[in-house]
Amino acid sequence: MSDPGIGAGSAGGQEKAVGIVLVSHSRAVAESVAELATGLAGGGAVVPLAPAGGTEDGGLGTSAELICGAARSVDRGAGIAVLADLGSAVLTVKALLAEGDELPDGARLVDAPFVEGAVAAVVTASTGADLDAVEAAAVEAYTYRKV
Prior knowledge:
Elements lengths: L18 E6 L2 H14 L8 E5 L10 H11 L5 E5 L2 H13 L7 E3 L4 H12 L5 H10 L7
Parallel strand pairs: 1-2, 1-3, 3-4
């Protein structure tokens, strides 16, 4: 899953769908979570999903350029749910949203746990749900109990 445009393409000629971007400090983590979420979504519709992990040179960190590219690659006109792993990833997404013209219209930072939230978001988006429902499912992942 090294291609940041998993299910990517332009909105032209395609049905509107919520896109999802997974922002991590690690390329491997972002790609692995994307693979896990896609696998657990089962036979639903293919979700426009892109990992944006690490820096351009493959190091640990966060890249505004990778995030913007991933967001553009999943934009299908129904909004984009952006999930981030840790502090500076969150701050980078917030800064891009504050700029107002860096991310596609309808991009939204979702406050959710990274792994569980990503799975919930992808599963919900695969049903054709709108951005509000995708965000609600991801946020609800905070309540998943393990004991």
